[in-house]
Amino acid sequence: MHEVSIVSSIVRTLELEFEEAKLERMKAIHLKVGILSNIEPRLLYNAYQAYNHPGSKYHQVALNIESVPISISCDFCGHVTEVQQYKFSCENCGRPSKNILTGEEMLIHKVEFED
Ligand SMILES: [Zn+2]
């Protein structure tokens, strides 16, 4: 299941980024997951249970997932459109566009620590 490897790579990234003492004070991880990213937030939450079950190292750390909508920019008029129902056309001039600005990403947006 690919969500499991995504979660372990997130944890590995944080472990490389922050020192042990800081990781112990980590209280929340905020992710941004584009709706075109092929990542199912529900499965990501499930996969994260391996890290925050009672007694585990990150049991106190909450996972927050924010869904990022699809947006496209138009080659003709430059307008940015938030895509609804997978209609990849400019809401200003009606021309089709495949210039995707957001919606494909999966990133660690923010990490919160206890004071
Ligand atoms: Zn346009």
Q: Can you describe this structure?
A:
It is a single chain. The protein has 115 residues and is of the alpha+beta class. The chain has one domain: hypothetical protein PF0899 fold, CATH 3.30.2320. Helices cover 28% and strands 30% of the residues. The protein has 3 helices and 6 strands, in the order ααβαβββββ. It has helices spanning 2-17, 20-23, 41-52, and strands at 26-34, 62-68, 71-73, 80-82, 99-102, 106-113. The chain is elongated, with a radius of gyration of 18 Å. The model has no long low-confidence stretch (mean pLDDT 95). The site of zinc ion has 8 residues, from loops.
Summarize the structure.
The chain is built from 3 helices and 6 strands. It has helices at residues 2-17, 20-23, 41-52; strands at residues 26-34, 62-68, 71-73, 80-82, 99-102, 106-113. Strand 1 (26-34), helix 3 (41-52) and strand 2 form a beta-alpha-beta unit.
